[in-house]
Write a structure and sequence with these properties.
With 116 residues, this protein is mainly α. The protein has a single domain (2-111), classed as Rossmann fold. Helices cover 47% and strands 7% of the residues. It has 5 helices and 2 strands. It has helices at 2-14, 32-42, 57-69, 91-97, 101-111; strands at 46-49, 78-81. It has a two-stranded parallel ribbon. Helix 2 (32-42) crosses helix 3. The longest helix is centred in the first third of the chain and has 13 residues, at 2-14. The protein is globular. It starts with a helix and ends in a 5-residue tail after the last helix.
């Protein structure tokens, strides 16, 4: 998902929106310090995860952020996940199912309270 996030950040930059992209690389141990430092700079967080939203890594990141950086948040933590359903393989469904730059850009604008 890092490549999708970098594509979205590049598009956002064209609109004057600077987005910091973090590649956690590992989830155990989770690099909470980097996440909190980013939230302190941006006051927002969009978590992108290709798994289902229920009980996934994005849920842990969102929880940890509200626990360790709640006072720095100016908007709710937003998650961009795969669709919360099973997927039979068909190329036309994958784009709608998985996170992509368009969905990430939409989420970033939502946490910034900007209209599309």
């Amino acid at each position: 998902m890092v490549l999708e996030c970098l594509k979205a950040a590049e598009e956002l930059q064209k609109e004057g929106i600077s987005a910091e992209v973090i590649d956690l690389r590992t989830i155990r141990p989770m690099d909470y310090a980097t996440i909190v430092a980013s939230v302190k700079k941006t006051n927002r967080l969009v978590v992108v995860d290709e798994s289902w939203p229920f009980a996934g890594v994005s849920a842990e990141v969102a929880y940890a952020t509200q626990k360790y950086a709640f006072d720095y948040l100016d908007a709710p933590v937003t998650r961009v996940n795969a669709a919360d359903t099973s997927l039979s393989y068909a190329p036309v469904f994958v784009e709608a199912y998985m996170p992509n730059p368009e969905k990430i850009i939409k989420a970033v604008k939502e946490v910034m309270y900007r209209k599309r």
